[in-house]
Specification:
Belongs to the peptidase S1C family. GO terms for molecular function: serine-type endopeptidase activity. Pfam families: PDZ_2 (PF13180), Trypsin_2 (PF13365). It contains 9 helices and 21 strands. By secondary structure, the chain is an alpha+beta fold. α1 packs across α7. The relative contact order is 0.12.
Length: 382
């Protein structure tokens, strides 16, 4: 399979709970009726639990304003008549892009967690605290692969959030979002946790390596980087994404993931993600038919992960993986979806070989691939 053919294929493929009172058995001929079971509330029985959570956590939620200067290429601005008549080339023009988002304080000494896309490429970062103070922020590090960043402000004795455990979440739990959507500071919305484990491909963010939390709490531009909280006021996620055109759908990065990334960013300013250098698609009978018809090859399986492109000079290329290979397992762990491959690669160690079993031309082949560090600027690759 040629790389150009595979590239064409890649483009085409990318196209109030209630109950009934229970009656106890009769004892000594006297019927004893049990009291109705208590209504269990995730709010701890407090009908105004949202108010309590906001009062507790609100002071630790900040507004983040960033700006960056964009230079335009003089050649793009040049009038062709100037060049014809020998006039000088115009000076570069610059414009300033401004953005606004949210964040939350994780350390009393001024470390703030937010989204990478809130501060990416920023020349200046300004933090506004709930008490009205405005402070200059410094980006300690950002990770585009998970969309997590840490910002430092020079002050201390700050209010902080409590971090929860995103591994034990259940759909239906009450959740609260606090942030600054559309420039409206200290906005509170609430809802439920709609789902867990939404993959990056589920929400159209294929260049990320995150399993997202889904919520129906209203999230809008400017909420990015703000906390998603449980009924106890613990942060369980970082609000990060919405799907254009959808209503009632918001997504957050699980706090366990965000915290792990933040620790690495604080320690060394970057995160080294394992990387193979493959572009892939989950193989289905329909995709198999399209591949066989369009590219004139004969895939003998319709289950696995089809490699549709190999990045030149990548670990995959060096190991001999080819476009058209179908991954069946990695380290003897069967895989049938791209999300499964992503998770195995992400949990691997850089430089430690992965045993990749592929089906190639109807035969099984074992290939050892040693992951390298993920290129920082490379997008939509795994």
């Amino acid at each position: 399979m040629s790389l150009s053919g595979c590239a064409q294929l890649a483009n085409s493929l990318n196209t109030s709970r209630g109950g009934t009172a229970a009656t106890e058995p009769i004892v000594e001929a006297s019927p004893i009726v049990a009291a109705p079971p208590p209504i269990i509330s995730t709010s701890g029985g407090d009908p105004n639990f949202v108010v309590g959570v906001v009062q507790k956590v609100g002071p630790a939620v900040v507004r983040i304003d960033s700006s960056r200067t964009i230079s335009q290429n003089p050649e793009q601005l040049e009038d062709p008549f100037r060049r014809f008549f020998g006039e000088s080339t115009p000076e570069p023009r610059q414009r300033v892009e401004r953005g606004s988002g949210s964040g939350f304080i994780i350390n009393a000494n001024g470390q703030i967690l937010t989204n990478s896309h809130v501060v990416d490429g920023a020349d200046s970062v300004t933090i506004t605290l709930k008490d009205g103070r405005t402070l200059k922020g410094k980006v300690l590090g950002e990770d585009q692969v998970t969309d997590v960043a840490v910002v430092q402000i020079e002050t201390n004795n700050l209010p902080t959030v409590a971090l929860g455990n995103s591994e034990k979440l259940q759909p239906g739990e009450a959740v609260i979002a606090i942030g600054n959507p559309l420039g409206l500071n200290n906005t509170v919305t609430s809802g439920i946790l709609s789902a867990t484990g939404r993959s990056s491909s589920d929400i159209g963010a294929t260049d990320k390596r995150v399993d997202y939390i889904q919520t129906d709490a209203a999230i809008n531009p400017g909420n990015s980087g703000g906390p998603l909280l449980n009924a106890r006021g613990e942060v369980i996620g970082m609000n990060t994404a919405i799907i254009k055109g959808a209503q009632g759908l918001g997504f957050a990065i699980p706090i366990n993931t965000a915290q792990r990334i933040a620790q690495e960013l604080i320690a060394k300013g970057r995160v080294d993600h394992p990387y193979l250098g493959i572009q892939m698609v989950t193989l289905t009978p329909e995709i198999r038919e399209r591949v066989n018809a369009r590219l004139g090859i004969n895939l003998s399986t319709d289950k696995g992960v089809l490699l549709i492109d190999i990045v030149p000079r990548s670990p995959a290329a060096a190991a001999g993986l080819r476009a058209g290979d179908v991954i069946q397992s990695i380290n003897n762990q069967p895989v049938s979806k791209i999300e499964e491959v992503q998770k195995i690669v992400e949990s691997s160690k850089i430089g430690s070989p992965l045993q990749v079993q592929v089906q190639r031309n109807g035969q099984l082949t074992q290939v050892a691939v040693s992951p390298a560090a993920f290129p920082v600027q490379r997008q939509a690759r795994q």
